[in-house]
Structure formats: C-alpha cells, structure tokens
Amino acid sequence: GVLVFTFILWEAFLAQRNVLYTDNASYSREWDIFLPLDFHSNTESTVSIM
C-alpha cells in the first residue's frame, strides 16, 4: 500500500498537470466573516479553565 501511494505521489509531482475544475478556489465563505469569532477569544478560554 505504501509503495502504491509513494508511486502515485511521485507521479503526480512529476506530471505537474493543470487543474481541470475549480469551483471555490479563490474565495471561501469562511473568509467573509471577521475572524476570530467571539467563541474563540482568549477570555473565554481562561473562563472555561477556571
């Protein structure tokens, strides 16, 4: 299994094919919102530990 995976990986780097289809390559819904969100703040992390 490891040999097959290594061969596939080696062949992919060697061939350097172009991308055939990209739907959301240059943008993502995740980047439309302001990060970090409130529930990822440092204050909540310290409160949840106490």
TrEMBL record:
GO terms for molecular function: oxidoreductase activity. Its EC number is 1.9.3.1. Keywords: Mitochondrion, Oxidoreductase, Signal. The keyword Oxidoreductase applies. Residues 1-15 form the signal peptide. Transmembrane segments: none annotated. It is an enzyme of class 1 (oxidoreductase). It comes from the Eukaryota. This is Cytochrome c oxidase subunit 1. The lineage of its organism: Eukaryota, Metazoa, Spiralia, Lophotrochozoa, Mollusca. The gene is COI.
